[in-house]
């Protein structure tokens, strides 16, 4: 079931309040949709796996082509505006971490978090959240992945610059089967992991 939210908000600016995500069928904000082949849509885009600086040096600053993340795999991927942002740290990433066994029981090969950050910040964030064993973290250091999918967002008002919208997808062999673009008003509570679990 493809879905999108009607209003937009950044992780850092949201307040945690009682409520749930409101999902509607409109898909007006991004070019990616259910049925999109991510590998064909972003064939030349690579992401940077979360790592320490020394790991980056020893790997010669290697990147991971998008096709390697999705080929012959069942993947849950979610994007966030920025590492260490408030609600994303307190609720969004933990909602995936806390449900990792349920994802595995559904045959999911990997759960991936991607944000417009460098891989070193993503590594520090993953370690701070103690989520590195459950979730794969990737940096989209220049935002090219999100821009290619029209999932980018200008968050200069929150001093974040150009980042990503908050979104999630279930992808089989590169093809999007479920898509949520969360653009929730501040009165709603983030519950991303539960939302995507209910749709796959």
UniProtKB/TrEMBL annotation:
Cellular component GO terms, alphabetical: mitochondrial matrix
Enzyme Commission designation: 1.11.1.25
Catalytic activity: [glutaredoxin]-dithiol + a hydroperoxide = [glutaredoxin]-disulfide + an alcohol + H2O
Enzyme active site: 88 (cysteine sulfenic acid (-soh) intermediate)
Enzyme class: oxidoreductase
Principal location class: mitochondrion
Keywords: Antioxidant, Mitochondrion, Oxidoreductase, Peroxidase, Redox-active center, Transit peptide
Thioredoxin domain segment(s): 36-200
Biological process, per Gene Ontology: cell redox homeostasis; cellular response to oxidative stress; hydrogen peroxide catabolic process
MF annotations from Gene Ontology: thioredoxin peroxidase activity
PANTHER family: PEROXIREDOXIN, PEROXIREDOXIN-2F, MITOCHONDRIAL
Subunit structure: Monomer.
Function statement: Thiol-specific peroxidase that catalyzes the reduction of hydrogen peroxide and organic hydroperoxides to water and alcohols, respectively. Plays a role in cell protection against oxidative stress by detoxifying peroxides. Reduces preferentially hydrogen peroxide rather than alkyl peroxides. May be involved in mitochondrial redox homeostasis.
Descriptive protein name: Glutaredoxin-dependent peroxiredoxin
Organism field: Macleaya cordata
């Amino acid at each position: 079931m493809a879905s999108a939210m009607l209003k937009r908000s950044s992780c850092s600016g949201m307040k945690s309040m009682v409520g749930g995500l409101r999902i509607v069928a409109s898909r007006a904000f991004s070019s990616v949709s259910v049925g999109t082949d991510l590998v064909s849509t972003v064939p030349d885009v690579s992401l940077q796996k979360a790592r320490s600086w020394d790991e980056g040096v020893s790997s010669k600053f290697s990147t991971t082509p998008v096709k390697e993340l999705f080929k012959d795999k069942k993947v849950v991927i979610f994007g966030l505006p920025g590492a260490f942002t408030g609600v994303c740290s307190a609720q969004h990433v933990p909602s995936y971490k806390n449900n990792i066994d349920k994802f595995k029981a559904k045959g999911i090969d990997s759960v991936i978090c991607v944000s417009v950050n460098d891989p070193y910040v993503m590594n520090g964030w993953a370690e701070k959240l103690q989520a590195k064993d459950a979730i794969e973290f990737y940096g989209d250091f220049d935002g090219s992945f999100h821009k290619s999918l029209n999932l980018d967002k200008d968050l200069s008002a929150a001093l974040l610059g150009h980042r990503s919208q908050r979104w999630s997808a279930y992808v089989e062999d590169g093809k999007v089967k479920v898509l949520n673009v969360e653009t929730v008003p501040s009165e709603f509570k983030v519950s991303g992991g539960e939302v995507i679990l209910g749709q796959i």
